[in-house]
Fold Arylamine N-acetyltransferase.
Amino acid sequence: MVLLVQPSPGSDNTTYVVDVGSGSSCLMRPLLLSADPSNFVLGLTKTERHRLVFEPPPDTSLASSSDLANRAGGQWHIEVGHQKSISSSIAEASEPEISWYCQVAFKESSEFGEEDIIYASFAVAHRAYPTGFFWNNITCVRIFTVDDDLGNQQLERSKRPMYRIILHGNEVKKSYGAQSEVIKTLGSEMDRIRALRDIFGIKLQDKDEIHIKGRAAALKLD
């Protein structure tokens, strides 16, 4: 889900894009709604970038225009780029060593009400069907900043590199860029409850184990 937010009070309509998704390489920090080539933010790691590109409707005269003042009917692309080498310069997002690809597209005119979100949530997470990801799995993701490096400690927390802790199935993994490691294997539903409580801060009690019994997302243990 992509959200457009205007955090400044009053008449300031400065707009940022935020992504509440948990997918790989998703937007990690608020990104100014602007197609300026210098507008980019750091991703999860030092080698990852996110930027916005505006694409006018391809079947109109706007497609060949450089004027972005009229954005009717067009759509924004959130693009993610990765450096080919950590040692290369990261000063400019437009440097050729960064390869970009479109991650998600959206329109400013796309508006969803609370009921739309509720129905979509039901279809994704509560509808019983064999291939439903959230029906068949319990997945939890939490983002942490890398604070144990002296160089990172000198940066504002919002600008520090990050890593993910991911609970999926019977494993808890630490993911940093292309690298990942299993930090915990869950041997029971009680292990999963404790991981969700201790690592992810979810307020669960031991007795809540009863609510997963018989469900498709219950751990398949030998």
